[in-house]
């Protein structure tokens, strides 16, 4: 490894450790601090999405920032799920309709929904309950360990590419290794919380797979926009979307699973 490559690796590791420490602390706090974090993630995702608009954003960024602020405020102030969904639908359609006159409506509508639902799922999964804390830690364990295990399994085993047209670096061995690691990590958290079961095992398996699809989805978005990274907000890592692509996809999936059994406002109660 060259000196510059080693330096970049050090930067990536340090950034990851600092981010993980901050996120875990805010997750433990829950309540308003975590809702602010969820809103910040959603806001950064939407900002980066608009910056990656193919051909460049032709409408005023202020218009879309103002529209999205309504959803962010709803997340921060803990509005119920029904009102959050209504805000996403109404404001998103309004912003997309405005942009459609300039040929960007569909792209921005997708970005609006992707970012808003991500913040919405994270905030309502955590809520302010013990089951919410377990749910988020379970989510983190599955997604983070999937990412780490996939990296090391792919580098050590190599083999056929997973999706060469979208992300040339990913392999089937990495995907399988990541899934095994992610499920193991999730089950450890579930066991520590006294919630380990066959059902939770299946949830962890699904989330690991969804997280990897979320990674591929974001890679396809960047490829379409012709960029390497979604942004440069995180030293050594690129943009926020580059770091949370798998996490938010899995969060949305976990929210839907929990909401089917525990209700829209307290999805974690059905799982943990």
Q: What's the gist of this structure?
A:
The chain is mostly helical. Helix content is 76%, strand content 3%. The protein has nine helices and two strands; from the N terminus they run ααααααββααα.
List keywords for this structure.
9 helices; globular; 272 residues; mainly alpha
Structural summary, described in words:
With 272 residues, the chain is mainly alpha-helical. 76% of the residues lie in helices and 3% in strands. The chain is built from nine helices and two strands; from the N terminus they run H-H-H-H-H-H-E-E-H-H-H. The chain has helices spanning 3-29, 31-51, 61-76, 81-100, 105-126, 130-157, 172-192, 198-225, 240-262, and strands at residues 161-163, 167-171. It has a two-stranded antiparallel ribbon. A hairpin with a 3-residue loop joins strand 1 (161-163) and strand 2 (167-171). The radius of gyration is 18 Å and the shape is globular. The termini are far apart. The model has no long low-confidence stretch (mean pLDDT 85).
The number of helical elements comes to 9
Tell me the overall shape.
Answer: globular
The helix fraction, in percent, is: over 70%
- Strand order of the biggest β-sheet: 1-2
Low-confidence stretches: none
N- to C-terminal distance = 44 Å
What topology does this entry show?
Elements: H1 3-29, H2 31-51, H3 61-76, H4 81-100, H5 105-126, H6 130-157, E1 161-163, E2 167-171, H7 172-192, H8 198-225, H9 240-262
Antiparallel strand pairs: 1-2
